Amino acid sequence: MEQFERLERKLIAQGTIIDYYQDKVRVPNGNIVTWDFIGHKGAAAVVPVREDGKILMVRQYRNALDRETLEIPAGGLNGADEPTKAAAARELEEETGFFSEELELLITIRTTVAFCNEKIDIYVARNLKKSTQNLDEDEFINVEAYTTEELCEMIYSGKIEDSKTISAIMSYCNKVTT
After folding, report:
1. Which residues are designated catalytic?
2. Which of 62, 112, 119, 129 is deepest in the core (most CB within 10 A)?
């Protein structure tokens, strides 16, 4: 592969979830280009499977879309060193009011590789135990349960558009049926 060389990374803005940079990069023909880069601390998500096979989903408002979405429980890491399995367990309990000691890694995704390094490890949680939902002061979440068939229909009909949720549900369905 031809050589790319990052010459500079300049912090433009620092946020609570992401940092925005502009990179100067020498491309293989020798030209120097400016590329945007979003630095993300990482995240974890979970597919919570009830005893009856239904999956717990969270419905919440998303400012970027200015509407509610239906997603699997997920959240950012509390720090770059936090194990993703611990973050997935934490988000499961905080958002759904259930916990599990049986979390198994399902898939790892990179959400937008063209300009962001966000990595999400997605786990499956079984043998859910009732606990208490513990939402952040800016979170307003409704917990709903669906069959995999219902979720796949919502994916194919465009009602679920969230990439981590689609990746998780389709991977889970493939794993369960193979």
Report:
1. 137
2. 119
